What we know:
This protein is an alpha/beta fold. The protein has helices at about 70-75, 105-115, 125-135, 155-175, 190-200, 220-230, 240-255, 265, 290-300, 320, 335-360, 385-390, 420-425, 425-435, 450-465, 475-485, and strands at about 45, 50-55, 90-95, 120-125, 180-185, 205-215, 270-275, 280-285, 310-315, 375-380, 395-400, 470-475, 505-510, 515-520, 525-530.
Amino acid sequence: MGSTLAxxxxxxxxxxxxxNSSQSNSQSNNCSNQNSNVxxxxxxxxxxxxxxxxxxxxxTNVALSRVQLDTSLAFRRRSVCTFDxxxxxMTKLPQVGLPARGKSYIVKKLQRYLTWLQYDTKVFNxxxxxxxxxxxxxxxxxxxxxxxFDPKNSAAKTIRDELALESLxxxxxxxxxGGRVGIxxxxxxxxxRRQLLLKRLESEPNCRVLFVESICTDPVVLAxxxxxxxxxxxxxxxxxxxxxxxFKKRLENYERAYQTLDEEDEEEGIQYCKxxxxxxxxxxxxxxxxLAGQCIFYLMNFNLSPRCIWLTRHGESVDNIVGxxxxxASLSTRxxxxxxxxxxxxxxxxxxxxxxxxxxxxxxxAMSPQREKTVAVWTSMLTRTKETVExxxxxxxxxxxxxxLNEIYAGICEGLSYAQIEQxxxxxxxxxxxxxxxxxxxxxxxxxxxxxIQRLNPLIIELERMTSDLLIVTHRVVxxxxxxxxxxxxxxxMPEMDVPLHTLYCVEPKPHGxxxxxxxxxxxxxxxxxxxxxxx
Length: 536
């Protein structure tokens, strides 16, 4: 993989030289060697920041000899985190577009994705600030009615611009405290407003701006977005008919002043991306830097197709019984029974979903065309996941075995139990306990959670692109990371997620969020029973 992993750590953290591991699952070899000086073998390794230190805890810089490359500790000194080449450059993403065009949907998706990649990302919503500022004040058009958005209402326009700048100031202050990506969630639909933002940002060094405009011409999607908008805080005290009439007039006011991003904006040398009908068409201009490119590539793979993403660990393996980690063990008898039941249950769910989808299409309720009928099944390259899906008919299911889905590689700890690791490598055991997210297993090819996140990045993009239902059969660490993305789990909590064997998750991406259901395999019934997730 050619991309680097962003860090939430301060910009003063330096990268340590990488090793030349030949293991296919080593994720650090693509990083450039920014500093070839590392500590001698007698130095202790600080697992929290990836910098060797002496026994007193001071960072050391001593030349690494060739002989040390053959030691497991040398491989351990690979960087735990890297910065994309803009280095300490901060990124601001102002949104552009009319109301009800899916800006908030895009914002939430981008925030989730960038946070999952370990970029500290925060959304600054101007509408929320406006609602707070206008409480109890209905003078001069400052209420939530359509009059407040009339371009001829100069007093209201001044207030709207002030609120946008206040939100921008809050965003800039947050970036200066260590944030990496700030998203300015507002319409910013006039060229004058965009120039106002750019003028303020000119005085900020190391700040790149990428405008993201959302355009929607699909009448079905637009009608759905408007219905969603009527349930927003602006209209919670109105009846539906009154709210719809007011919002229609608000749209007309915005349309009168709306100026799309075009050649005139290009003369300013800005970066921008226009997303049309949620990714069906994407126009990008003057994109610079790794992070902006990642955002564009992610946006290009959006779709609103209704689909179910099923996720589970493999069935119980013989190594699970004795508590060993890693390896390439086969399933136990119990694990094979789980695989057989899984194939029957997914087949049943597939048929039920097809019935529901046909009814939606017939009723004109579908937001997208008929989805692909083929259900994809993805497993890792390891034996225990392949054996779990042996009962799936390849004529019905598109089965693929993908190396990205392999379990985290535990280096010299492969094939050991946690009790054995604690006994043989007590310092490693403690380092992992202190910070599981950053900890990298020692030995050639040993991985950390951050390595696996980077390894799974292309798979996440493919998840967003797919329109068919999907079953992923993988392993504990990979399941935590993928569920962490889909459920927007805090990165500190993600490595501790409880994902037991013989548990099946169903994730349904929706325009308003993600619906997650959990099913437990009841061995006595040889069937799955829904097990509600606790509320956040």
